[in-house]
Specification:
This protein has a three-stranded antiparallel β-sheet, with no helix packed on it. Strands 4-5 form a two-stranded antiparallel sheet. About 5% of the residues have low confidence. It has three helices and five strands; from the N terminus they run ααβββββα. The protein is of the alpha+beta class and about 100 residues long.
Length: about 100
């Protein structure tokens, strides 16, 4: 974020007030990992000038997702992914014969 804002200023391009506020508050990112939040993430709240937990809606699970960190998926999305994997797996095993 800092490098991008510095480049924009050097090029004489406008920088949003929101980005300025984030950096003025001493923060470097809009989102951070927050193990205390149900989602595992927090966002920079412009009104308070600090991070607040990302809320997770009812019926949504939060799962660890490799280097990307936390990902929130609904039960429907998880079921759809499982169904797709089952279809792909069945297709690949039938073509391997």
């Amino acid at each position: 974020m800092e490098a991008t804002v510095a480049r924009l200023k050097k090029e004489g391009k406008p920088v949003s007030a929101a980005a300025e506020k984030l950096l003025t508050a001493g923060k470097k990112s809009w989102y951070i990992d927050d193990p205390k939040a149900p989602s595992g993430r927090a966002y920079f709240d412009l009104a308070s000038g600090d991070y607040k937990p990302v809320q997770v809606a009812d019926g949504v699970w939060s799962v660890q997702g490799g280097e990307e960190g936390q990902r929130a998926w609904s039960k429907r999305t998880l079921a759809r992914r499982s169904s797709i994997w089952a279809t792909v797996s069945a297709a690949s095993s039938s073509t391997a014969r």
